[in-house]
Design goal:
The chain is mainly β. It contains two helices and 31 strands. The longest helix has 19 residues.
């Protein structure tokens, strides 16, 4: 080999190594395995565009509302078909969780997301017959308990994915209130809905879906596509304002529809966003530039739940208000239009009590003194939206808080 060719060869090897190291080459996934004879936990190899099957889920997937998440600290891959939740240890490929959700009737669980800050899985429960009356739930994979945290009676569930903003301790997910999508932020610390923000699209034809939280840049990332399927953008949304921004146009393959995709995830170490726009294609996109790194067609049938064992770091102190603390304020009715009744189980005549009602951005709307354990409040002068109620005892703010939906 002459000297010039040797330099070219070394340069090619270094370049190839750089490209390979710039992204993860293996993703966790679920698919309908002909080898194992059912839906299986697998690895999708992006170098060879192959799938390797490891663990057969004992029950066939029974709904289209599938979602997945990971506990990266304990190496657990969770997969849900809306009725059951499975957990697989990714180190030994053993099935460690196989349980039906403790819900009854025609309810399904969607948009599951593991929160590394409190070791709970958050999700949305809804009636799949009507697809309305959405509730935010938490599921404890250690003891299989499920708690309902908040309700959104007038929204339709989006077949997307949830995500956790660990810096602000928020569970974020999309609601589909056709023809627009709405970002819902649930404040885990307060145990209340923090905001409901309608996405402001850059064009009238766009849809935004496949959300994941980008830890490095502190933003909510997803795919924005036009209704004509002619353009796809890596985009991000500012949750409080709902403004959508394009990072770059993506020239990839796949059906651009929020109702047919295998999930999304982010490699926070290498700043790569993965998204499967249809059931056998995985696209890798550079988070910083929005450029397509690769588009891999995986030889599988019905691909679901692509994930990586990465997660955002948690703050050193995360205060979680328990449901028992939160229940010390009871509001009825909720949602409401004209008047609400607030009951305070902690009321004591020896103290001075005040209630503060503020809007979603923290501006005080009402402040009034409380003279008994039960108070009626006129809210007919407040605009429709989410409002937060906090209690002051002897001019000191307490942990007793709740929220009200006014419509």
């Amino acid at each position: 080999m002459n000297f010039k060719r040797k330099i070219l060869t070394i340069t090619f090897v270094i370049l190839l190594s750089t490209i390979v190291n710039a992204q993860t080459t293996s993703l966790f996934c679920t698919h309908n395995s002909s080898t194992l004879g059912g839906f299986a936990y697998s690895n999708c190899d992006l170098l060879t565009d192959s799938v390797y099957d490891y663990t057969l889920f004992p029950v066939l997937i029974s709904s289209n509302y599938v979602s997945s998440t990971v506990d990266s600290a304990n190496h657990i891959y969770y997969f849900s078909d809306g009725v059951r939740i499975y957990g697989v240890n990714t180190l030994n490929n053993n099935l460690v969780l196989n349980l039906p959700y403790p819900v009854t009737g025609t309810f399904l669980i969607a948009n599951i997301q593991y929160n590394p800050c409190d070791s709970l899985i958050y999700g949305t429960a809804f009636d799949y017959i009507t697809n309305y009356s959405v509730s935010i739930i938490s599921f404890n994979p250690n003891d299989s308990t499920l708690n309902t945290l908040a309700s959104l009676p007038s929204y339709q569930i989006h077949k997307g994915s949830g995500t956790i903003d660990t810096a602000n301790n928020l569970y974020l997910f999309e609601l589909s209130n056709s023809p627009f999508n709405t970002i819902c932020g649930f404040d885990i610390t307060l145990g209340a809905i923090s905001f409901l923000t309608q996405i402001s699209y850059m064009t009238t034809e766009e849809n935004f879906f496949g959300i994941s939280y980008d830890c490095t840049n502190s933003r909510l990332v997803g795919i924005s596509v036009t209704a004509s399927d002619s353009l796809a953008y890596l985009s991000y949304v500012t949750p409080l304002s709902g403004e959508l921004f394009h990072i770059n146009t993506i020239g990839w393959e796949g059906a651009y529809t929020p109702f047919l995709h295998a999930g999304s995830c982010i490699d926070n170490t290498n700043n790569v966003y993965y998204f499967a726009p249809k059931q056998n294609i995985i696209n890798s996109v550079n988070l910083n530039t929005g450029n397509l790194i690769s588009s891999d067609t995986i030889s599988v049938n019905a691909l679901f739940g692509i994930e990586l064992l990465t997660s955002c770091t948690c703050p050193l102190t995360t205060k979680i208000i328990t449901k028992s603390d939160n229940s010390k304020i009871t509001i009825y009715p909720n949602p409401a239009s004209n008047e609400i009744n607030i009951t305070h189980s902690f009321f004591n005549k020896a103290n001075n009590y005040e209630l503060i009602i503020s809007n979603a951005v923290g501006k005080t709307q009402k402040q009034l003194k409380i003279n008994s354990s039960s108070t009626n409040i006129n809210i007919s002068d407040l605009l429709p939206g989410i409002y937060f109620i906090k209690t002051l005892i002897n001019n000191n703010e307490t942990d007793h808080s709740s929220f009200i939906i006014i419509r």
